[in-house]
């Protein structure tokens, strides 16, 4: 059997008094596209940094493509692509030169560098920008260039930390299209993102991280089934009305969550007739989403 692309076991990472990662376990099978979701400060970026070798776990085990970190981090790095959350492109270089520098860093033999740069440009739809300096690129193009840089070594594992953060919806969609192509090509991808709804359409599996651990894990459809059911009924109203809806749902054993000025009662397809009568016609009846699951789980844990 193939070794897992990622294996983290009982990892702990502390920064002074803060425990950023607290006994985290995570295994990712080759070819899987995994989304790491979690509220701010949950430990996602620290987990990513442990996988890239930028941070060393205080205890526990971290393995990437069969290489134990930190001892074999050089070998792991050669097979891994990294797209960091923060833009650190070289402003003075052209798009192509930025990639050439990375092809050298990645220790590609000289004769393979040109083709690798061409392939990365094509994969991220930047070929016609190759001669432009980085300075003049739009936010979306800069993100795609960061991605191009991350795949210069044709990695078996791609680590994406918030690849679409700060981009407007149309440009995010372009980025998702490019990332979707990587997925189709069979690359293992581990990605953190706050755009849960968008991730839901792309990922094979989701791991929800909270307080430095994975609190739930599974395919989006399975997580929906397990935690939120099929339908959400939304009831709008005053704060008192919302509190009443929550209390009635809880009494019937149905989960609920706040959605702006409404309360969404989940598993609405199983709502008993007497509760349906009490609550009246919902203002909105919709399919449940991964965001419902996320808010439900992390909200419960916050309490
Ligand atoms: N270098 C560091 N020094 C001190 N504390 C740190 C450092 N890196 C992370 N932390 C702390 O560790 C915790 C986890 O941070 P981390 O960045 O991993 O969370 P995250 O899930 O990526 O959050 P976000 O979604 O906001 O990026 C936070 O409390 C953070 O303040």
Describe the structure.
Its main location: membrane. There is one protein chain. The protein has 303 residues and is of the alpha/beta class. It folds into two domains: 6-224, P-loop containing nucleotide triphosphate hydrolases (Rossmann fold, 3-Layer(aba) Sandwich), CATH 3.40.50.300; 229-287, Alpha-Beta Plaits (2-Layer Sandwich). It is 38% helix and 26% strand. It is built from eleven helices and 14 strands. The protein has helices spanning 44-52, 73-78, 95-105, 110-123, 139-150, 169-184, 196-202, 220-227, 239-251, 273-279, 290-302, and strands at residues 6-15, 18-28, 33-37, 59-64, 67-69, 80-83, 157-161, 188-192, 205-210, 213-218, 231-236, 256-259, 262-265, 284-287. The chain has a six-stranded mixed β-sheet with strand order 6-7-8-3-9-10, sandwiched between helices. A hairpin with a 2-residue loop joins β9 (205-210) and β10. α3 packs across α4, α5 (139-150) packs parallel to α6 and α8 packs across α11. The two termini are 42 Å apart. The model has no long low-confidence stretch (mean pLDDT 92). Adenosine-5'-triphosphate (ATP) binds at residues 15, 18, 20, 38, 40-46.
